Fold each of these.
Amino acid sequence: MPEEPIEVICRIYARPLQLDPDLLAGLAEIATQNAEFDFTDAYPDGKVVRGVDGVRRIAANWPWGGLRFEPERFIEVDADRVLVFVRATATGIGSGVPVERRTAHECTFDEGSLVRFKVYSDRNDALAAAALSGQTTPRHSNTARDSRDSDSEIRR
């Protein structure tokens, strides 16, 4: 039986992630070739790209290095969608200035594959979008610490 979306996402975010070739290769294993990656809400010049290759192309031009994502909370919106509250850290390439943002990643699955990934700059906007799509109460929510505990089970 294939993993449920919440299980896949908890496994992927089980440790802080650095945007590097290994992370993108891991995404390619779960995402469809035509998966939509939407960065329009999070960045002033954000784009919507298709597939992990599209993410590789735009990430090559981002103005920061050492981009890392640390999960803080997982919310199972419905059977196909998971919100992950993340702490993103990076360093400006030109300035060397450290940057930190707390954002949300919405991951949408279809038949076990990632078909849409959207970054929200405001976590409340992400929660509101989930509610507007017909789901007002998450089916499951846990902290990242819970997901890293190998003995914990995903509870519904």
Amino acid sequence: MQSSAARLAFGGWLTRGQSVRRRATSHPFAHAAHEGMDGKEAHMWIGDIAPGAATGTHRHSTPRFVYVMEGSVVLEMEGKPAQTFKAGQGFMESPDAPHNFKNSSTSETAKALGFQIAGKGQPLQY
């Protein structure tokens, strides 16, 4: 499976197998084109966010959906109040909206599942 996946937003999302800003990593596990999705690919990954880790401000070219599996995370969208999401909650990161995504705990790791559909070869974030 090859993908331009995730810089953590997880978000932001992280580049496959790399650490970005204080040990937040993603583990892509699904990346596929599907009949009826001409020219598009679906990307899915799990992100591990170390205590206090953040993605840094970034944007996505298409909507990104996030489900918090463990711990809690804070989504900081430019021009909006920060929102905290706990395990069992989900949210969408809007396209082209500058945001930062971080673990709200300084002692516990957070884990989230991310999903995004984008054009084939299209960067998932910038």
Amino acid sequence: MCAVMDRGAIRDGSTFGAVYTCNRCGHIWVTRKADGLPRSCPKCRSVIWNKNCKTVKCLRCGHQWISTKKRPSRCPGCHTARWDVPVSPEPVKVRRPAVVDPDLVERIRDLYYTGMTAVQISVETGLSFQTVYSIVCSLEK
């Protein structure tokens, strides 16, 4: 779609030319040439001055840009192809403390006091390192 307003006399009536409007910045100007479309807007230098543009916003990073495409392929800010899909919040994980048998706590305490590390104890007992580490930390208090 061309943004030509009209043809007519300009200023003193001696200059004739087409009047154009930039769809990006809104600048209005008159061409000096009688034929052909201008390559770019003289104010913003945009080469897409005569195309329908729309402002697009990335729902992931918040970047805004102007595009002539119906659906741009990527966000120029974060380069994601899913710029039009909102980021879903991650589900909150609730950690429950592991229920450990009191006899096993005693065994862990004995192994720790004999000089074994928490990693060695977790390998030997089959418990997770985090469980063994939390038990060892509670022993030192």
Amino acid sequence: MEPAPTLAATLDTLLAGCGATAALEAPVRRRLVAFVQLLAKWNRVWNLTAVRDPDQMLERHVLDSLGLLPFVDEAPRLDGVPDLLDIGSGAGLPVLPLAIARPGLACVSVERTGKKARFQRQAVLELGLDRVRVRADRIEDVGQRASIVTSRAFTAPEAFLQLAAAHVAPGGRALVMLGRAERLPDRLPAPFELDRLHRLEARHERHVAVCTART
């Protein structure tokens, strides 16, 4: 396993490149490194992600997930529901990096694949993420709403919004992470309207669409 100091230096360099170092305190950065070490360890046996190199995990998984932080921070927190629901979260992305960076977030992570949900539960335990609840279910079987609904590499944007419609609280937001070749539909599924489209990382041409659920 790659030593923590080496990974920590890589993470600091990546964060400095996007101007985020000052926003994440040292204990948060240590937890992010511990998450990647745990992911790399489990990945050798359980094939949780196609990315094998821990340095690449930091850039392609952790930094990509943290790109949602400004939109999570600005989103309204609605009464009576969790702050964030992550649909088809795989190895805990983006929910676990977000929960590490913002320990006050009440999160629900929904992942139907048993081995990935088991990994997430172990990460939650080892990293002390006591405000994250992991559900090993199909999203269609989950009757939970949240202030923010997100997903990363789960399904096509339109299909994600159709699923998210049943899980975002009125007045809440869906954060749609778009890859290079992905586009939003011309007409968003109800109840969503596009608030804005923001470029996350120029090198990978990654965008996030902020979609608001009309009340």
